[in-house]
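Researcher: Quick test of sequence recovery. Tokens follow.
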């Protein structure tokens, strides 16, 4: 099974480049521009490893490390442009598994990733965020990337699946467009709400009997969207 690696860096070019190279190396990669978004994303889709920049806006990397270790319980590699040994030592004392200093060769980063994943033994935990979730007549199995509605299997893209997963685990709750952007797409899409509108429409076409009159994914005007469980 692919290991999931979360890249947290406020440099958009850097995080996209790292994520691309990780995917080319066979990993599943996601990214966030700040620690707050990264922690929110990790609650929904727990990574196997976090590549965490120290110098982040808002919550910095050292503060974020505590949350990743205490709440998410995931190994962290610090990626930093700071060349002060103090940062590196403090990060390791707080619980980071490793660190790498920018600029770096991608082959070096991949070697660090491989070592930390092997050391952490991340293949064995059974994690709640990857267990099947059911709301009404909809069931999703994240590990199998399988979705069923009213006994009928669905063919969903990755984004559609992640969007439905987010709505399912918050069934009955209203999620704003910004909530969905942060949890499903990441911070770089925060000013592009149209991607949510489009994917909601596509999801409705696949799970609603009458997409124009949705019963499962309903719009709460002025607030956002809510998944309403319908019993089989």
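Model:
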């Amino acid at each position: 099974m692919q290991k999931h690696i979360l890249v947290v860096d406020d440099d958009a070019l850097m995080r996209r480049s790292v994520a691309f190279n990780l995917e080319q190396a066979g990993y599943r990669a996601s990214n966030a521009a700040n620690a707050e978004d990264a922690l929110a994303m990790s609650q929904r889709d727990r990574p196997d490893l976090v590549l965490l920049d120290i110098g982040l806006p808002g919550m910095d990397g050292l503060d974020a490390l505590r949350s990743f270790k205490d709440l998410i319980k995931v190994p962290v590699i610090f990626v930093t442009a700071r060349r002060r040994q103090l940062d590196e030592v403090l990060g390791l004392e707080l619980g980071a598994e490793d660190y790498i200093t920018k600029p770096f060769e991608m082959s070096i980063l991949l070697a660090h990733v491989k070592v930390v994943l092997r050391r952490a033994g991340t293949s064995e935990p059974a994690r709640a965020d990857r267990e099947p979730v059911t709301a009404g007549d909809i069931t999703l199995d994240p590990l199998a990337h399988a979705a069923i509605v009213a006994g009928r299997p669905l063919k969903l893209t990755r984004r559609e699946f992640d969007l439905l997963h987010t709505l399912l685990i918050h069934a009955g709750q209203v999620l704003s467009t910004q909530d969905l952007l942060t949890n499903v797409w990441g911070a770089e899409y925060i000013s592009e709400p149209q991607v949510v509108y489009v994917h909601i429409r596509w999801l409705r076409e696949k799970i609603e009997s009458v997409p124009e009159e949705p019963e499962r994914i309903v719009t709460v005007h002025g607030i956002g969207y809510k998944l309403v469980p319908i019993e089989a």
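The helical segments are 12-24, 35-44, 61-72, 85-94, 106-120, 158-169, 177-185, 194-207.
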